[in-house]
Design goal:
globular, guanosine-3',5'-bis(diphosphate) 3'-diphosphatase activity, mainly alpha, HD domain-containing protein, Hypothetical protein af1432, MESH1
Length: 234
């Protein structure tokens, strides 16, 4: 890619409020992409940072820390595909950065030179709110048909599952149910039908299951405690 076509500058300045972990993740991914010669990942890294600028997660962390974690997790699990890593970095931009992408993602290809395959994966991963079980089933089935999208979705769920303490009781129950009903079965399916990614799918499934199981047990104990307290009051 020629220098004149680079719409996103590769800046290395970070705000004083950025966490050390965020900076390390950013530089780790950049160094990996340079060493492995992954041009799409390099562009996506800088673009994701610009598009998520000013956004924060519920715990107050810069939002960019989430796609960085999703991408670095895949790298740590042996994924070195340029398309997959680039899509991992941009997986939330259509969902959360609509004001900066008024053409519903067409800018990613035309303006920023993101490949069509990467954009297609981002679109597959983009989720509408308020889906019922049937609609969720269709959504996850579509993801399962693309192993690269499935890897990203599972890595996304793994990170989100480790930060559930910000959810309300009802949202937490819904999240755990969704993981148990759709994510874990999808991981099993992908592990079986995409042998080239067996190791990554196996680790993702195991870690997601462990987190979901632990949180489910904690929820059950909490419900038992509430029930016992109500009996005492009566």
């Amino acid at each position: 890619m020629e220098k004149d076509n680079m719409s996103i500058p590769f800046k290395e300045e970070f705000d004083k409020n950025d966490t050390e972990k965020y900076i390390k993740s950013y530089m780790f991914i950049k160094g990996y992409a340079v060493a492995k010669k992954l041009p799409q990942t390099l562009v996506a890294l800088s673009l994701a940072r610009r598009l998520h600028e000013g956004q924060h997660r519920k715990d107050g962390a810069p939002y960019i820390s989430h796609p960085l974690k999703v991408c670095s997790t895949l790298i740590n699990y042996g994924i070195d595909d340029d398309v997959t890593l680039a899509a991992a970095l941009l997986h939330d931009v259509l969902e959360d950065c609509g004001d900066k992408l008024p053409l519903e993602g067409a800018e990613l290809e035309v303006k920023y030179r993101i490949s069509g395959e990467v954009v297609d994966i981002i679109r597959v991963l983009t989720k509408e709110s308020g889906l019922d079980d049937h609609e969720l089933s269709v959504y996850f089935k579509r993801i399962a048909e693309n192993p690269k999208a499935a890897l990203i979705k599972l890595s996304d769920r793994l990170h989100n599952s480790s930060t559930l303490y910000n959810l309300s009781y009802e949202k937490l129950k819904k999240y755990l149910r969704e993981t148990d009903m759709f994510l874990i079965p999808m991981a099993s399916y992908c592990k079986r039908y995409y042998p080239e990614y067996t190791n990554a799918f196996n680790i993702l499934k195991s870690n997601i299951y462990s987190l979901n199981h632990s949180m489910t047990i904690m929820m059950e104990r909490f419900e038992e405690m509430l029930a016992a307290r109500e009996e005492c009051v009566q």
